Amino acid sequence: MAVGFVSPALRPLRKRRPFHRRNNTVCAADGPVSPTRRELLQAFAVAPLASLATASERALAAETRPRSPWDRLYDSRSGSFVPASALAALLRRDVGLSFNRCIVAGEIHDNVCTHAAQLAVIDGAARLPDAMPLTVGFEQFYRMHNMYLDAFIEGKISTGELLQKTRWAETWGFDPKLYTPIFEYCRDNQIPMVGLNLPVQFVKQVSNYGLEGLPEGLKQFLPDNMDVGNKEHYRHFMQLIGVDSSHIGANPDQALLDRYYEAQVLWEEWMSQSVAMSLKDRPGTRMVALIGSGHVEGRYGFPNRIERRSAERPYTVVPRPVAWTSNEGHSMPNISRPEVDIADLVWYTRRKIDLV
Fold first, then answer.
1. Strands 72-75, 80-83: parallel, antiparallel or unpaired by DSSP?
2. Can you tell which superkingdom this protein's organism belongs to (predicted)?
3. Of 284, 344, 302, 296, which is closest to residue 101 (Cα–Cα)?
4. How many Å apart are CA 241 and CA 234, to the nearest integer?
């Protein structure tokens, strides 16, 4: 299957300083887990990927094959389109100036091109000239999975063992082959991986009963200073789940919708707290956080909550899989105009249907 993206050259990076152990909180990793995050999001099936090559083979392939004609970046600062090869220059221009210690890279969970874009962002961040050590935060793992992520980076467990110990099939559910190149890049280059998420059962409790209806035993684990009053974020969330803005407040299922919104807020507050905790525990480091694009668009959710908790303004990248058109030999996204307010960088790439 052609995916229209060449992974960045994976030549060895500079030597990394040793990473710290983290305290794991809230609940144990073992035990029954139901339902999956995937079920909760009603996600689609994932197309299989080709088998993975070694780091040296990936490096050789990246250096000898041309870059994809299918990726274009819309740079909100300059108001212009640039090729994907300009990513490193954009990161050098912005990260460390307007932004410093956090980059948020969105994804469409089952679209391989958006994960390839995330890998390119990680690679670009790892090569920034300030040589700030990097960590990668994952929505796909829980905070209490960090002991297994540490073991994976240290080479003590394999990718398969990592997936088994974190109960990937039950806790996330998307095809792990979509993420394995990122996992292997982190291990090849000794970049610590950090779990950002919380158990999906906790979120489901909120979607069923609301924040006020939680048992007291769970309320003690809620992040402090949760913001459920952002009207723009509320409207954006309702739009994401297909609710007409004219019906907000007059919907017969309004109480249910409000509980769903509170569950979304819990997700974002917990994960932004995880980022803030990592930045605090690892002074002098930078994080690339990987998370679904719906949490990133417009900065309403995850990015603004990170900034509120850490005083670090994240640089945001949102992928947009779209149809493409060719004009005089040049491929461009087939859109009427770029989306100018959703992220610092909008990464236009191919739709899943076009990859088959």
1. antiparallel
2. Eukaryota
3. 284
4. 11
DSSP 78-105: TTEEEEGGGHHHHHHHHBTTTB-SEEEE
In tens, the pLDDT along 184-234 reads 999 999 999 999 999 999 999 999 999 999 999 899 999 999 999 999 999
Contact (CB, 8 A) for 116 and 317: no
- CA pair distance 173, 15, nearest whole angstrom: 34
Q: Helix 302-310 and helix 254-281: axis angle, to 10°?
A: 40
How many Å apart are CA 185 and CA 119, to the nearest integer? Answer: 8
Which amino acid type is present at position 144? M
User: At residue 95, what is the residue type?
Assistant: V
- Ordered structural domains, the chain, with CATH: 70-355 (3.40.50.11550)
Spatial strand order in the sheet of 286-292: 80-83, 72-75, 345-350, 315-322, 102-107, 286-292, 134-142, 193-197
Token pair belonging to 268: 């974002």
Assign residue 89 a region (left: φ > 0; alpha: ψ between -120 and 50; beta: otherwise): alpha
